[in-house]
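We emphasize that the prediction below concerns an isolated chain of 116 residues; any contacts that depend on oligomerization or on bound cofactors are therefore not represented. The input was used exactly as deposited, without trimming of termini.
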Amino acid sequence: MNQKIHDMVSEIEAMKTKLKQEIAKEETKAASFRIEGGSVIFDRENLQKQRAHMKHLWAWFKEVPLIQLMTAPVIYGMVIPAVILDAFLFVYVRVVAPVFKLKFAKRGDFIVFDRH
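Result of the prediction step, given as a token string:
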């Protein structure tokens, strides 16, 4: 490789490093929290904003439509049967799969919890 190309490649690498540093600096500036010792510490200003916008439980219940309040126990009540079904299927697969010489599938490949 000739010297000019080598210089250009090293210049590009230096620019990439500088760009990463600038992006990290902007993200740190825009973030309203910092991580210290494995715990998240929010800025005092943002905590005050959150407290100002916080809604008390009774005020929330007054605003929620009655139909939603009535159906919520039915909807959330299905969590327990779903967990029981999952446990039984787990035991079933662990017992039956070795008998038929089947490979176990990783759960993470098929079950994804989206946290948006």
